[in-house]
Design a protein that fits this description.
Layout: H1 2-19, H2 50-59, H3 63-67, E1 73-84, E2 86-88, E3 100-102, E4 110-111, H4 128-137, E5 156-158, E6 161-175, E7 180-195, H5 201-206, E8 227-228, H6 258-263, H7 267-275, H8 278-284, E9 292-297, E10 300-307, E11 310-312, E12 322-334, E13 357-368, E14 373-383, E15 386-392, E16 406-412, E17 416-429, E18 432-443, E19 447-450, H9 459-464, E20 468-482, E21 485-498, E22 500-501, E23 504-513
Antiparallel strand pairs: 1-6, 1-23, 2-3, 2-22, 4-5, 5-8, 6-7, 7-9, 7-10, 10-12, 11-12, 12-13, 13-14, 14-17, 15-16, 16-19, 17-18, 18-20, 20-21, 21-23
C-alpha cells in the first residue's frame, strides 16, 4: 500500500511537470487597443520537460492513461509597466510618410483650416470661434482644398503625449481530461496619457530644438499643450534626423510668407484665428484636450484549449528525439472596465473599450529533446458591435484627427489577425529557461453606421483610418526556484507599427503549480 501511494504521488508530480507547457498565458486573443495590441498576462512560456519525454516510454506503458491524468492547476500573478512617447502614423507616401510621430498625431496632425469646411449637420451650428475665424480668414469666398497644406504644416498642430500603463494581471489554469484544459486570465490597470509641457525633458530635447530661429523671441511659437506648426519651415542645418520629427521654424522676415505661398492664407491670420485660440475652440466644440488618468478593470479572458504530444524516435541514437505538439484553443473575452469618453481626446482604451470578443488559435510546436522548442501560432479575433454616444465623425474629407461635430453611431470593429514565432530553451542553465517570440497583429478597418442618417457626416472617412498593425518582440526568462514555484521576467519591445503605439512593456511574474 505504501508503494501504491508513492507511485501515485510520483505520477501526479510528473503529470504536473508535463502540463507546465500549456498552463502559460499566451497571446491568443489580441486586443482592440492600439496602445496595447498584444497584451501578455505572464512571463511564463511553454516549457516541455525533456527528461520526462525520455522517461515516458519506459516508465509508463499505458500512454493513454498517463495523458488523461487529472489534478493539476497553475496560478500566476504579474506586475507590469508599459510606456510610449512615439508611434507610427497612417500615411505611407508623400512628405508626411510613415515615420515615428507624436502619439497625438497617429491619424494625422490636427488640421485647423479643415474645421471650417463641410456642410453643417442637421440642427447644429459652427462654433462661435470657428465662425469668427471663417469670417476673418475667408470674407469673400469659402475655403477650398487649395487652402489645405498637403504637408500638414500651415494650419496644423502637433500633440506630444506621454503614455504609461501600470497594473496587475493574473492567470489561473486547470487541467480537465485527455489534453483538455481551461484558462482564465485578467487584470486591473492604471492608465495615464499626459500632454507634455514644453519644459518636459523629452519635449525640450526632441521638439524644442535650440537651433530654432524666430523673428520675435528666438524660439518656436509653442503653447504648453501643443506645438503650433504654422509659419515655420524645416531648418536645413539639422542633419541625421527624420524631417517629420523636427519642429518647423519660421523663415526670416525678409522672405515671403511661407503659408501664403503654399495655401494662399497668411500666417498671422491662421495663428490669430485658429492656432493660438485653439483652447477656446476645443471648449466650444466640447473636446477635452487635458491629460488623462484612470484606474479600472482591464480585459478578462476565458480559454478552452486542447494539446497533445506525438513523440518520434525517443530511443534512437541516429535520429533526434522530437515531440510534435499541436495546440487548439477557443477563447472569449469581456472588457467590463471604463469605456472611453468620446469627448476626451487623449483617453486610451481599457481592454477592448466595452466590446466583447471571441477567437480561435491554432499552433504547432516541435520540441527537440536535446536542444530547442520552436513553433508558430495563428489566431483570429472577432469583436462584437457596440453603440457609441457622441462619436466624433468628420464632415469633410480633409479633416484629420480633430472633428467639430459628433453624433450617435454603431461601431463594428474590424477583426484581428495574429501571427507568432517562438523559440524556447528550457532549463538553458540549471533551472533557468529563456524564450524569444515575435508577434504581429493586424487590425482590419472598422464599420461605422450612423444611428440617424445625416449626409453631412462621413463615417467612411473615419473608418478609413481605423486599421492598424503592430509587431513586437518578447524576450522572457523564468527560473524554477522549487519544483512547484518559480519567478520570471518578460520584456516586450516594439518592432514595427502603423497607426499604433511604439510601446515597451516590462513584466515580473510569480507562478505556482498545485
Amino acid at each position: 500500500m505504501v508503494i501504491h501511494y508513492r507511485s501515485a504521488a510520483y505520477v501526479v508530480c510528473l503529470t504536473i511537470i508535463v502540463l507546465i507547457p500549456f498552463y502559460t498565458t499566451r497571446a491568443d486573443l489580441t486586443s482592440l487597443a492600439k496602445n496595447d495590441p498584444c497584451p501578455m498576462f505572464s512571463a511564463l512560456d511553454p516549457l516541455v520537460d525533456r527528461e520526462l519525454l525520455r522517461k515516458k516510454v519506459t516508465d509508463f506503458r499505458n500512454e493513454y492513461q498517463y495523458r488523461c491524468a487529472r489534478g493539476c492547476a497553475m496560478v500566476s500573478a504579474s506586475l507590469f509597466g508599459q510606456s510610449a512617447v512615439r508611434g507610427k502614423n497612417t500615411k505611407a507616401e508623400g512628405v508626411y510618410r510613415r515615420v515615428p510621430i507624436q502619439l497625438g498625431d497617429l491619424t494625422g496632425r490636427w488640421g485647423l483650416i479643415p474645421l471650417l469646411f463641410g456642410p453643417l449637420p442637421a440642427g447644429q451650428t459652427l462654433a462661435p470661434a470657428l465662425q469668427s475665424a471663417l469670417t476673418a480668414m475667408f470674407p469673400v469666398a469659402p475655403p477650398t482644398p487649395y487652402n489645405v497644406d498637403p504637408n500638414q504644416r500651415c494650419g496644423y498642430l502637433s500633440f506630444p503625449l506621454k503614455y504609461s500603463k501600470r497594473g496587475l494581471r493574473i492567470s489561473c489554469s486547470f487541467d480537465l481530461n485527455c489534453g483538455l484544459g481551461i484558462n482564465i486570465e485578467g487584470g486591473v490597470a492604471s492608465l495615464r496619457q499626459n500632454v507634455m509641457d514644453i519644459d518636459d525633458p523629452f519635449c525640450a530635447q526632441a521638439l524644442c530644438t535650440a537651433s530654432a530661429t524666430s523673428v520675435t523671441n528666438n524660439a518656436p511659437v509653442l503653447d504648453y499643450q501643443w506645438i503650433d506648426l504654422t509659419g515655420f519651415e524645416i531648418n536645413p542645418t539639422i542633419a541625421g534626423v527624420e524631417v517629420n520629427e523636427l519642429p518647423i521654424f519660421q523663415v526670416a522676415s525678409d522672405n515671403p510668407d511661407p503659408c501664403e505661398t503654399i495655401i494662399n492664407v497668411k500666417t498671422d491670420l491662421i495663428q490669430e484665428n485658429l492656432s493660438r485660440p485653439f483652447a477656446t475652440i476645443a471648449q466650444q466644440i466640447q473636446l477635452n484636450i487635458d491629460s488623462y488618468c484612470g484606474v479600472s478593470s482591464d480585459e478578462w479572458r476565458f480559454n478552452l484549449y486542447w494539446r497533445r504530444f506525438f513523440e518520434y524516435y525517443p530511443d534512437s541514437y541516429e535520429w533526434a528525439h522530437v515531440a510534435v505538439i499541436p495546440v487548439l484553443m477557443l477563447s472569449a473575452s469581456a472588457s467590463p472596465g471604463i469605456i472611453k469618453d468620446e469627448h476626451k481626446a487623449f483617453q486610451p482604451y481599457f481592454g477592448n473599450n466595452g466590446h466583447a470578443a471571441v477567437g480561435a488559435t491554432a499552433g504547432l510546436y516541435l520540441d527537440f529533446a536535446d536542444t530547442l522548442q520552436v513553433g508558430a501560432e495563428f489566431s483570429y479575433t472577432h469583436f462584437s458591435s457596440r453603440h457609441y454616444t457622441d462619436l466624433r465623425i468628420p464632415n469633410n474629407l480633409y479633416q484629420t484627427t480633430v472633428f467639430p461635430f459628433f453624433t450617435n453611431a454603431t461601431v463594428q470593429p474590424g477583426d484581428n489577425n495574429f501571427f507568432a514565432l517562438r523559440a524556447l530553451a528550457y532549463h538553458f542553465i540549471d533551472t533557468l529557461s529563456i524564450c524569444v517570440q515575435y508577434n504581429k497583429v493586424e487590425h482590419k478597418p472598422n464599420k461605422i453606421c450612423l444611428v440617424k442618417q445625416d449626409d453631412a457626416f462621413l463615417p467612411q472617412e473615419l473608418a478609413a483610418v481605423s486599421s492598424w498593425t503592430n509587431s513586437s518582440l518578447n524576450a522572457s526568462a523564468t527560473y524554477d526556484i522549487l519544483p512547484n514555484f518559480g519567478v520570471g521576467v518578460l520584456w516586450q519591445a516594439p518592432v514595427r507599427q502603423r497607426n499604433s503605439y511604439k510601446a515597451t512593456t516590462i513584466m515580473f511574474t510569480a507562478y505556482g503549480f498545485f
